[in-house]
Structure to design on (915 residues):
């Protein structure tokens, strides 16, 4: 059937909106000249890097801008009615009745001191004057609608008693209770694990179809955009630079910024040998530094001409429904793009050396956290001791000069494994050996030589840098303590390290607060590499960074690794990044290793069923790619009381392949099956059967 | 085919205290002809239509130019709307033809769709027209043939059987009693991936069927 929906006027029509914040330096224009339409039963995605004004647009629609924010120009029409200039009372009524919002962190949207039932029914009793009993029934119905297991009982629980994914489902249920015409979602899945994210994204698709809701979906993740959005608006520095259907934005991006973004993200399956990530040079200008009367992207654009610097391009329609804010979108062919000369020399793909001797050997490693039982006996020290088995029976080796990626859901023990290796946790059993050193010794008792050779890059550079020390002092510290360098040489060496992470000497005297997120992470990397370590553990080093910065940091890590032949352990939840960056990949579930092998083997059959489910959940930045639909139900079991037999049997979608519906999985621990010498799988299902699975992702 | 599948969810609505001028603006902006009037919690209070916006000539005649301006600017939605008790409504779980019957009997252009007195949608003449077009395959490319067949059991099956025997697919079909000829039945069939000649050649073979029109 042709789509008669288009004959309806858009639910939301934003025209030339400009939003400013009052600051002590005067008004700062956070968003300007933004226009887009959102139709019923479609999802309009707003993408861009942090600081581009995505959330400001969302808040502007419902005028949640706070005391210093205001809409200074343009119009925002909801169902034909102008929202700009409405009184608070009128907007409040609309927000309750017809517009709902879902935010990034579900815990902040829920009141921790009220039961979920009270919070849900309140929506109905306040806005609709419905009796408590009826409101309760409707709330339970809506919870079932968002696939909440055991909905009736969840009503009596408090927010902390359910998992993060379930919390977000409650928030979505709450948003939908009043059957809103417009739903605004601001990074609703960013805080969730991939497997949970996949279920929530499916849910959003279903709800859009069944309720005909128009959705504004704000995200930085191009993979998520490709999965849920129909229309996309790309924002850069407060302006919409490209608008079009999701197929067009990904298939033939018109604006140089969009094209740059596409080159920044590794596709699932691309490797460091076969492809290169090209970061966009420069960085997003702060609102007060944005060029006036010129193209806002011109300072970072490879195609910029004099015209771009002296004249501001409008949002021009190049094809039906595909607009771009660029003078030259018709002339630019992204396939003809070539990296500027300084990129080619350093980032060209290289053949990797054959694997050397293992530098890190871990055998049957166990790290447990003690937990007192709640019985009275434990008060006098006689209670039964319980353990959280954070890392259980993990064995692996990392050859010199190679990278091992570690993936898994949150709580699977990735970070504990890293902490144990670096000495912040003491293992309960098993052996870990690195260059002849025993790693079961806590870091305080370790030899200086070992500390020097084993360094770590942390996820959040903010919390790992001392805010009152300059960059120079922070990088100099390991040099003085570990490198035994003469104090007079330290400064020179620090500047050399800064240059190696592409920061110039002027950063020596800066304080952490004067750096952007990407720069801080570079300093963190420089500090980790200062003592010329043999092994660097990177715990989610790029998760907190924007895609263009992420590409630059990944390239930098690759470069340094090649120069020094450093071995790395790379912990991340983004499977495309891990594939790109790693030679070997280890998949963890509930403290156990379930599959390990060379990266290319992990991403193609035979899969461990958990790996298969992870791969099918990861959002791929390509709307034409076909992905198998495997969803894990239930939550990760408690590590305090892990399931018997195979730890994954409670959620495994493949156990039915075994006789008796996989009874053996519940009773016996699976064997390690060797697909190749290096690739092994922890599963009862015979390898021959695992090999017959189709690949999870097929690109057209 | 139920009302819930074809109604427009989230209809544009107005509040009772809105000025009539603003309601007119909303109608123009959204190209909508019927506005349900809803109060707190989307409860239905009334309905305004374009006819309702007209000022009765008798009333107009008694006013002078200045009074008209004042009269208009003070006019609110609640002053002109059809009151709740006079609005004919429907529910989502009702067959479409039932809703259509109500609309023709009452000669009205729309039915607000309610669930527990809360507006969940609206179904209008346009939705019915869209459905009629779609029922007869009007949005799809293909060959449309009208057959006149005797009004007895098994006749339509002859035609559809002949088409499916050829491996062709039927997009849509619809039949009505032939106007002024109760002994016959007119049936429209839309067939895809076929040429007019081939289709006619096959349908001509059926005894008692007459091809009224092919396009």
């Amino acid at each position: 059937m042709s789509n008669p929906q288009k004959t309806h006027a858009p639910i939301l029509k934003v025209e030339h909106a400009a939003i400013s914040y009052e600051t002590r330096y005067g008004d700062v224009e956070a968003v300007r000249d933004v226009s887009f339409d959102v139709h019923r039963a479609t999802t309009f995605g707003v993408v861009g890097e942090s600081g581009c004004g995505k959330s400001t647009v969302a808040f502007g629609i419902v005028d949640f801008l706070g005391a210093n924010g205001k809409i200074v120009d343009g119009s925002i029409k909801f169902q034909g009615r102008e929202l700009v200039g409405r009184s608070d009372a009128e907007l409040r009524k609309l927000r309750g009745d017809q517009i709902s919002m879902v935010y990034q962190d579900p815990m902040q949207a829920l009141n921790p001191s009220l039961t979920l039932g009270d919070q849900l029914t309140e929506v109905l009793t306040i806005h609709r004057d419905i009796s408590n009993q009826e409101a309760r029934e409707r709330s339970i119905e809506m919870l079932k609608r968002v696939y909440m297991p055991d909905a009736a009982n969840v009503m009596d629980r408090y927010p902390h008693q359910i998992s993060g994914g379930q919390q977000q489902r409650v928030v979505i249920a709450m948003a939908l209770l009043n059957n809103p015409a417009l739903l605004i979602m601001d990074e609703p899945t960013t805080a969730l694990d991939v497997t949970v994210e996949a279920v929530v994204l499916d849910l959003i698709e279903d709800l859009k179809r069944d309720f005909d809701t128009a959705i504004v979906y704000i995200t930085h993740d191009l993979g998520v955009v490709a999965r849920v959005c129909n229309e996309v608006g790309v924002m850069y520095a407060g302006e919409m630079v490209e608008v079009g259907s999701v197929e067009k934005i990904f298939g033939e991006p018109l604006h140089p910024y969009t094209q740059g973004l596409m080159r920044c993200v590794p596709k699932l399956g691309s490797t460091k040998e076969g492809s290169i990530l090209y970061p966009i040079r420069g960085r997003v200008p702060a609102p007060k530094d944005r060029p006036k009367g010129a193209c806002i992207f011109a300072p970072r654009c490879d195609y910029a001409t004099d015209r771009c610097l002296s004249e501001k391009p409008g949002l021009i329609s190049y094809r039906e429904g595909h607009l771009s804010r660029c003078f030259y979108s018709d002339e630019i062919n992204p396939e003809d793009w070539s990296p500027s000369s300084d990129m080619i020399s350093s980032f060209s793909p290289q053949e990797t050396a054959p694997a050397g001797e293992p530098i890190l050997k871990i055998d049957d490693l166990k790290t447990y956290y003690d937990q007192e039982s709640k019985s009275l006996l434990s008060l006098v020290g006689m209670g039964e001791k319980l353990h959280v088995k954070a890392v259980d029976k993990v064995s692996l080796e990392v050859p010199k000069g190679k990278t091992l990626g570690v993936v898994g859901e949150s709580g699977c023990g990735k970070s504990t494994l890293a902490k144990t290796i670096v000495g912040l946790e003491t293992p309960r059993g098993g052996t870990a050996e690195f260059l002849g050193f025993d790693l079961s010794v806590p870091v305080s008792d370790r030899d200086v030589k070992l500390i020097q050779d084993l360094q770590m890059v942390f996820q959040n550079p903010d919390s790992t840098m001392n805010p009152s020390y300059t960059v120079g002092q922070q990088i100099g510290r390991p040099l003085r303590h570990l490198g035994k360098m003469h104090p007079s040489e330290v400064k020179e060496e620090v500047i050399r390290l800064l240059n190696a992470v592409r920061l110039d000497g002027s950063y020596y005297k800066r304080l952490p607060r004067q750096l952007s997120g990407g720069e801080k992470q570079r300093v963190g990397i420089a500090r980790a590499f200062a003592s010329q370590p043999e092994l660097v553990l990177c715990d989610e080093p790029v998760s907190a960074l924007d895609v263009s910065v992420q590409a630059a940091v990944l390239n930098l890590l690759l470069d340094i690794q090649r120069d020094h032949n450093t071995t790395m352990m790379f912990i991340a939840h983004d499977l495309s990044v891990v594939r790109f960056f790693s030679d070997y990949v280890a998949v963890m579930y509930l403290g156990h290793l379930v599959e390990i092998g060379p990266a290319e083997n992990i991403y193609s059959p035979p899969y461990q069923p958990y790996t298969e489910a992870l791969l099918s959940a990861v959002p791929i930045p390509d709307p034409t790619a076909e992905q198998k639909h495997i969803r894990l139900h239930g939550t990760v079991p408690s590590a305090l009381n892990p399931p018997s037999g195979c730890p994954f049997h409670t959620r495994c979608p493949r156990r039915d392949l075994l006789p008796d519906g996989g009874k053996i999985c519940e009773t016996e621990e699976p064997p390690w099956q060797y697909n190749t010498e290096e690739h092994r799988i922890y599963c009862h299902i015979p390898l021959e059967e695992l090999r017959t699975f189709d690949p999870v992702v097929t690109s057209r | 085919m139920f009302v819930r599948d074809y109604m427009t969810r989230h209809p544009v609505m107005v509040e009772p205290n809105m000025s009539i001028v603003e309601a007119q603006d909303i109608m123009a902006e959204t190209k909508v002809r019927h506005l349900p009037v809803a109060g707190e919690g989307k409860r239905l209070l009334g309905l305004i239509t374009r006819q309702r916006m007209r000022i009765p000539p008798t009333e107009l005649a008694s006013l002078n130019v200045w009074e008209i301006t004042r009269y208009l600017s003070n006019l609110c939605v609640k002053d002109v709307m059809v009151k709740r008790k006079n609005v004919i409504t429907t529910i989502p779980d009702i067959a479409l033809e039932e809703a259509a019957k109500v609309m023709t009997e009452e000669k009205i252009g729309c039915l607000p769709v309610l669930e527990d007195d809360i507006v969940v949608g609206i179904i209008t003449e346009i939705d019915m027209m869209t459905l009629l077009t779609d029922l007869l395959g009007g949005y799809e490319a293909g060959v449309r043939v009208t057959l006149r067949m005797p009004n007895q059991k098994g006749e339509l099956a002859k035609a559809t059987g002949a088409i499916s025997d050829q491996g062709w697919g039927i997009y849509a079909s619809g039949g009505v009693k032939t106007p002024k000829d109760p002994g016959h039945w007119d049936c429209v069939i839309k067939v895809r991936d076929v040429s007019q000649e081939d289709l006619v050649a096959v349908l001509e073979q059926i005894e008692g069927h007459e091809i009224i029109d092919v396009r």
